[in-house]
Amino acid sequence: MGFTETLADRFDVGARGSDVRTELIAGITTFLAMSYIIVVNPFILAEAIRIPGYEFFEVVQMIAIATVLASAAATLVMALYANRPFGLAPGMGLNAFFAFSVVLGLGIPWQTALAAVFVEGILFILLTLVGARKYVIQLFPEPVKRAVGAGIGLFLLFIGLQELQIVIPDESTLVTLGGVFGNPWAILGVLGLVLTFALWARGITGSIVLGILATSLVGWGLTLAGVFERGVITPETLPAAQYDITPLAGAFVDGFAEIEPLTFVLVVFTFFFVDFFDTAGTLIGVSQYGDFLDEDGDLPEMDKPLMADAVGTTVGAMVGTSTVTTYIESSTGVEEGGRTGLTALVVALCFLASLVVIPVVAAIPGYASFIALVVVGVMMLQGLTEVDWDDPAWAVSAGLTVTVMPFAYSIADGLAAGIVAYPIIKIAVGEPGDVSAGQYVLAVLVAAYYVLQTSGVIL
């Protein structure tokens, strides 16, 4: 049996309607869509993580290596244990919470913040082993499960349009259309979108990868030809990798030395809550898009992919980065046809390879990598057809799930809105019996958390 056949047999590729070539392309696509985290995560965390004797950019390089290692470890578990085509990495939003709210805002040492992430990871491993996380996710109302994919799509679309500078902040209206054709960054982004959408419409396999690479090459071509200076449409400098992370790895142990119990518990709980619902929303949304859900809207053997992010979070804290979660950018690979853990294996290997070629990964301009978010965001909106808009409970619950995600800039907040709305509307229309006891309890707990959180009682 050849190597290709061995891979296909190991990941059950044929039975899932895929082939090795498609899985490889899907894995590369997902990695390219996620690769920005290798650069973005270190710069966010380095604002809070200061190591005596090391300069800012040296710490950035340490965190970059930690980011790669945590992402690769979690995604390998997803590939080899869960056999699902999802990539994992330190979560955006969670890293900002770590740096700006916990360390800089509360004055908690960064080592203690890493200890809180480690505890969260251990809790997730234990809850996953006993099936508790899977049980809670299965309590999600069906309209939430059916709408979450479109909500994530709209969220992706919103992020992508902002990163391409097509949509920009505005004091009066919060957001508005940017000066697109006076901005070379936005112009290249629009041209890349046109190319990628055209390739996808023609049914070209690997259309998103081709769009990203072609747009990157155009940007670098214009720069090298002298049309633009370095730093305008291409990175000004390409960082070199630093492999010594000993001052960072294992620092979480020191974080247990001096902790204030109540504050520590609240920090752990907040990490826990946001990661729980972000991961749940991403798994269900991407699974819906890939047609992985069963007739009840649940992902079969959900405990296995949940274990991947639990292990990733634990490993991430040990090497020196914030909470690891399943990435919504996984939908880019699913769109390319990824259906098995072979896609995730490719993602993990690409992360490990980036240890050697971090400057090459960093050479992909932002407007090229974020093309994938806009393209996939549009495609994922087709999930709205699965919502029964004639049913008031479905319409309100699904509608809030979809819209709150981009408006609150949080997958977790969108899920929470739909979860709380469903039993309220069911009671209003005289159908309280359609809501299970577990769904009532979940709605009350979620509502209570947001009352305390938005009133400033907890973080």
Produce a short descriptive summary:
Keywords: Cell membrane, Membrane, Transmembrane, Transmembrane helix, Transport. This protein has helices at residues 3-10, 20-34, 37-45, 56-82, 94-105, 110-129, 132-138, 142-163, 184-201, 207-224, 261-289, 303-319, 330-335, 341-353, 358-362, 366-369, 371-380, 392-408, 411-428, 437-454; strands at 88-90, 167-170, 174-177, 324-326.
Describe the secondary-structure layout:
Blueprint: H1 3-10, H2 20-34, H3 37-45, H4 56-82, E1 88-90, H5 94-105, H6 110-129, H7 132-138, H8 142-163, E2 167-170, E3 174-177, H9 184-201, H10 207-224, H11 261-289, H12 303-319, E4 324-326, H13 330-335, H14 341-353, H15 358-362, H16 366-369, H17 371-380, H18 392-408, H19 411-428, H20 437-454
Antiparallel strand pairs: 1-4, 2-3
General shape: globular
Describe the strand arrangement of the main beta sheet, using strand numbers: 1-4
Order of secondary-structure elements: HHHHEHHHHEEHHHHEHHHHHHHH
Mean pLDDT: 88
What's the gyration radius in Å? 22 Å
Strand content: under 5%
Question: What's the domain count?
Answer: 1
Subcellular location: Cell membrane
GO molecular function, one term: purine nucleobase transmembrane transporter activity
Protein name: Putative MFS transporter, AGZA family, xanthine/uracil permease
Keywords: Cell membrane, Membrane, Transmembrane, Transmembrane helix, Transport
